[in-house]
Each structure stands twice: as C-alpha cells, then as structure tokens.
Amino acid sequence: MAGQPEAAEWHGRFFEDFSVGQVLRHRLGRTILEADNAWFTLLTLNTNQAHFNAEYAQRSPYGRILVNSGFTIALVLGLSVSDISENAMANLGMDAIRLPRPVFVGDTLYAESLVTGVRESRSRPYAGIVSVHTRGLNQDGAVCITFDRSAMVYKRDAPQVRDIFPQATEPLQPPA
C-alpha cells in the first residue's frame, strides 16, 4: 500500500541472534501425507513393510501404517531450519535422537527448540556454533521426537551471506 512502510524481510537468524535459554517455536506445521511416507521409504530403500504394506501394518500393535522415522527426523529438522540453520554453513552433529511416540499418516507435526549453547568459532571468525534441543509435537501436543543438534551459523557481517540476491538488469515495474 502506498504510504505504508515495507515489512522487514526475513533472512533467518544469524549467530548474534541466539542466546542460551531462548525458546523458538517454529512457525510452520506440516501434515504428513501417505505419499510423503511412501516416497521417503522407497527413496531410502527402507524395506520394513510397516511403512508401506497396509495388510502387514494392520497386524502390528499400531494397526496401521507407521511413518518412517527417518522422515520424522527430516521433517522436524526441516521445520526448524528457518529459525536455526537458514544461515548455517554446516550442521555439525545430531545426538540423542529419541522417538517416544509413533507418527502416522495424517498427523501434523510442529517443532520447537531450546538454545542450549552459543559460542564463537575458534577456526572461523565469521561464524559461531549454536546448539539446540529440538522436539517435534503432533497435533495433540504429544512429543513424537526429540534430538540435540549443533550448527555452525554465519555472523551477520560474514562475507559469505552478503549480496546473495542478484542485481536485476531492469527495474521491477507493474505490467503495462
């Protein structure tokens, strides 16, 4: 709108934006579709039929197809990227992965993280190391997964993150 200030563009958090004890509730939730589970299971060559054979899964204690735990990890990690590692140069490690509840097709997962460590990098002056404890919750608020993760995150003035968007050869104008 004319006369309105531009909304600040989100560029993710940089190293300076983290502090120990900070809780980050990641903004997106994601409903798991049958295709997500089937494709991930096939892509990773996971041959456990509990993930893709409805008849087999029906005989299990859960009585239905179980979402591949690798997908659960990948999804919850992905939900946290915009807040934790959008400006990371590398993930350094994941530890203490726990899966206290099963996840099923149709569940919607959310993620939140607690910052557990923040320190300057000794080898890279343009970055620091951020450690978090992340958990994934289903639509009922039940914890389905927890893990600890460390990432090397760029500082705001790091040369690697400056001027990424290309300079347009023509100005942006409304269509004629």
Describe the overall structure.
- About 20% of the residues lie in helices and about 30% in strands.
- The protein has 3 helices and 6 strands.
- Strands 1, 2, 3, 4, 5 and 6 form a 6-stranded antiparallel β-sheet that branches.
Number of strands: 6
**Helicity level, as a percent range?**
10-25%
Low-confidence stretches: none
Helical segment count: 3
Largest sheet: 6 strands, antiparallel
Find the structural class using helix and strand composition: alpha+beta
Total domain modules = 1
The portion of residues forming beta strands comes to: 25-35%
In round numbers, the mean pLDDT is 91
Can you write the helix and strand succession as a string? EEHHHEEEE
Radius of gyration: 20 Å
In the CATH hierarchy, the third-tier topology is known as: Thiol Ester Dehydrase, Chain A
Protein topology:
Elements: E1 23-25, E2 30-31, H1 34-43, H2 54-58, H3 69-84, E3 88-98, E4 108-120, E5 127-137, E6 143-154
Quick structural summary:
The mean pLDDT is 91. The protein is of the alpha+beta class.
Provide tags for this entry.
176 residues, alpha+beta, six-stranded antiparallel sheet, 6 strands
